Amino acid sequence: MEGKLYLCPTPIGNLEDITLRVIHTLEACQAVYCEDTRRTGQLLRHLGVAKPLVSCHAHNEAQRGQEIVERVLAGEAIAYASDAGMPGISDPGERLIQRCQAAGAPYEVLPGPSASLTALVASGLPVQEAVFVGFLPRSGKERREWIARLGRQTGSLILYESPLRLSDTARELAQAWGDRPAALCRELTKLHEQVLRTTLGEATDYFVQTPPRGEFVLVVDGAPTPAAQAG
C-alpha cells in the first residue's frame, strides 16, 4: 500500500455504512491513529481487523500530527479515523492535513458517512449555498457574534449541538433569527432515527414536552433573500 496518510470516515450509527475502501485501507495500513482507541477498537473488532491503535485527539493532535508526518515521509501507510463520520468535520483531521501540506507528506481523504450532509438532505431545506456551522461557541461575546453573523446567511445552516443544550440553543436562535423553518435530525442511521420538520419556535416548545435524547443535527433555513422579502 502506498505510503501516505489515509483519512477514513467511519459510520455515524449503522456499521453497515462503512465502505469497502475504508475496510481495505484499515486492513493494509501499518497503524491506525484515532480519536478514541476504545471506540475505534470496537469497530475494528467488528470488522475482524487487528492493527496497532494510537490516540490522536484535540488535546494531543499537534504532537501526534508530527509523528504521523514523520511516519508517512518514511514510507508508511497510516490511517486516521475519528469517532464517527468524516475526519475534520467537527473532529480532529483538519490540522493533520495542514501539517501534511506544510511538510509535503502525501495524504488521501476517503469518501464516506457524514452526519452534516445526511441531515441537510433529509431536512428538505435548500441545499444550495448551505453553510456548515458545527458547534457554536459555548457562551459570551463570541457566541453572540457568531449568531448575529450566521443570521445573515441565506443558505441553510447545519449545526451540531449537545442534547443538554439543544432546547436553549433553539430558543436563542428563535429570538435572534425569528421563527424560521428548521429540521431536527436525531440519531441518524440508527434504530430510532427521526427527522422532525418544524420551526425554531415550535422546536423550543417541543423540547419542553419531549426532552432531547440522543445525537442531533439541527438544520435551519437561511435568511430570506431581498427578492423573497419583496415577493
Which features would summarize this protein structure in a list?
five-stranded parallel sheet; five-stranded mixed sheet; single chain; 10 strands; 19% strand; alpha/beta; 231 residues; 9 helices
- As a percent range, the share of helical residues equals 25-40%
Alpha-carbon Rg, integer: 20 Å
In total, the number of strands is: 10
Shape: elongated
Biggest sheet, strands in spatial order? 3-2-4-1-5
Structural class: alpha/beta
List the helices and strands in order: EHEHEHEHEHEHEHEEHEH
Taking all residues together, what is the mean pLDDT?
94
- The share of residues in extended strands comes to 15-25%
Q: End-to-end span in angstroms? A: 58 Å
Low-confidence segments: none
Question: How would you sum up the major sheet?
Answer: 5 strands, parallel
- Our count of helices gives 9
Oligomer: single chain
